């Protein structure tokens, strides 16, 4: 799980709608984290447990961090239940097992708020939510996932 903000490589793609959603009470998301959307419309870090409602979808990548834990040691617009815009597009997300060109166009699933997998249901685990699709690799072999 992320413990601070991160910046991801992005490949520009056709516009997809983006939404600003509130961070669930008791949770914190970081810039660059994969965000899950709960049944009540609030967001949490993908892979989070103890959520107010079940995580039903992956909303996108957080544009900025937001702390709604009630215990931040700073104050400002990034504190409280404020809305976080969730970005869509093609992102360089780290995989649990490196994909190959044979995996292009396969669905990609959230392991947690920073890592993705080609495996929907891990051994002795619950089904993961789909983040998007593997769309290709850059000149350095970095895989990109289309989050739509």
Question: Would you kindly provide a written description of the structure presented here, covering whatever features stand out?
Answer:
The protein has 148 residues and is mostly beta strands. 0% of the residues lie in helices and 36% in strands. The protein contains no helices and 13 strands. Strand 10 (107-110) and strand 11 (116-117) form a beta hairpin. The mean pLDDT is 91.
Topology:
Layout: E1 10-11, E2 19-22, E3 28-29, E4 34-38, E5 43-45, E6 55-62, E7 66-67, E8 83-87, E9 89-91, E10 107-110, E11 116-117, E12 130-137, E13 143-147
Antiparallel strand pairs: 1-9, 2-8, 3-7, 4-5, 4-6, 6-8, 9-13, 10-11, 10-12, 12-13
Class based on secondary structure composition and strand pairing: mainly beta
Report helical residue fraction. under 10%
Give the biggest sheet.
6 strands, antiparallel
Tell the overall outline: globular
Strand percentage: 35-45%
**Number of helical stretches of at least 4 residues:** 0
Radius of gyration: 15 Å
Total strands: the figure is 13
What gap, in angstroms, lies between the N and C termini?
Answer: 22 Å
Order of helices and strands: EEEEEEEEEEEEE
- Average pLDDT, rounded to a whole number, is 91
Low-confidence stretches: none
Order of strands, main sheet, comes to 1-9-13-12-10-11
């Amino acid at each position: 799980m992320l413990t601070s903000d991160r910046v991801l490589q992005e490949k520009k793609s056709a516009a997809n709608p983006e939404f600003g959603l509130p961070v669930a009470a008791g949770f914190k998301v970081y810039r660059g984290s994969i965000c899950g959307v709960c049944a009540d419309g609030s967001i949490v870090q993908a892979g989070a447990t103890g959520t107010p409602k079940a995580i039903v979808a992956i909303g996108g990548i957080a544009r900025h961090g937001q702390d709604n834990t009630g215990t931040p040691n700073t104050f400002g617009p990034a504190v409280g239940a404020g809305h976080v815009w969730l970005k869509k597009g093609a992102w360089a997300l780290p995989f649990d097992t490196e994909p190959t060109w044979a995996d292009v166009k396969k669905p990609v699933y959230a392991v947690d708020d920073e890592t993705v997998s080609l495996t929907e249901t891990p051994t002795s685990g619950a089904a993961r939510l789909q983040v998007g699709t593997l769309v290709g690799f850059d000149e350095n072999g970095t895989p990109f996932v289309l989050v739509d």
